Amino acid sequence: MGTELLAPLDLAFWHLESDAHPMHLGALAVFSPDGGGSPGPDALLELLGSRAAAIPRLRMRVRDVLLPVGGAAWSADKDFDVHRHVKRVELPEAADGEGAFMAAATRLAGELMERPLRRGLPPWEMYVIGGAADGPFAVLVKLHHALADGMRAVAIGAGIFDEIASVAGPGRAGAPAGRARPVPPRSWMPGPRQVAGLALGRIEDLGRAFGVGASLVRASRLDLRGATALSASSSGTRRLATADLDLEAVQRIRRAAGGTANDVLLAVVAGALRRWMLERGEPLPGADPRALVPVSRRRPGGAATGNRLSAYLLGLPVSEPDPWARLRAVRGAMDRNKSAGPLRGAGAVAVLADQLPSLAHRFGAPLAGNAARMLFDVLVTSVPLPRSALSLAGCPLRALYPMAPLARGQSLAVALTTYGGRVQVGLVADGKALPDLERLGRCAEEEVAELLAALPAL
Q1: Partner of 168 for a Cys bridge, out of 173, 305, 366, 383, CB 3.0 to 4.6 A?
Q2: Can you give the pTM of this predicted structure?
Q3: 59 pLDDT more than 90
């Protein structure tokens, strides 16, 4: 793999990072031996390292370039050493039983997620947590957002699993299947039709960017008062929590209410925030908090690298006391978002970032990052996983909790994925702003139960 310029949005993520605001996303994958016992921590570390080293994308680092001015490029790390990236950490406390292990592993993962990835090296890390004989273990994966969006992160990270690694073969884990077709040689000079097409496409892109920019100005809030916990000052600390929702329950609610499963999950997040705020004695905000809901623009068979994102803005109806009214409000708002499309509206800020020059990202990223609080209060994202059962070293994957980065001025990010008949929720928060994050996870589970209990009355 040769040198490759960072796309504008990737460059934005690269320059948005600071020590207090690391821009990596992640996942905590939990495995349990299935009667055969764990291979042991040393064997797990060796296996994980060999599979990660076989993923070409994980050998790339970011370096500055002269042109375009302010730009950067991916290039192969000639001194790549997988042992700098794949490590084992022991739990700081005894954890007998899966429940105790999960609690201890989640606390440790929060501490590891606080640490920015080392620049100058390929921007990723993996940690083996636990792994004693016959006991559960976890793998924490950290990938810089410049390296991958959620869908691309899944494609890269999947290379560590037994099923994908065995199909890909040596040196091919995480690489696209199949052989690239040869491209016939052609002149680098574009013809008249190509010039016209490029010019027309650029005009359309700029017109779209102006439209998004105008929507951003209209949607920005100068009065930043809202939910106290969601608008607290950043401390640079991280706390993680998880929740598990019954997928069949979510689907039953969806069939009764209409819409999509994602509509149900967004309403569950709104209801969980309401419960959590009331239980901690915090007054409900005068204006409903806004969620930024990312939308993938990646197409099957399209470019494999770089972030391809847009997003919708959604008011989370925490002021509405009735859970079914909350669901109807979320469904209506998402229907309006989808009708407008992911390339319009203030949520399409990533589309605007794609049109800015490299120099603007290098020097304007801190200002843009500080403005995020004027646009939204919480990130809520869904990450797709392969539907097949997955394992590592013969140990089945029991759960995978995705983790999204916190933007400047944000205290909470919610990520969801579906695996094994469950919706697994990963909560990432500022550790000082939201010390009771575990309670928010339980509120999400209670919200699903309340919606399900009201089904017969519909």
Answers
A1: 173
A2: 0.85
A3: yes
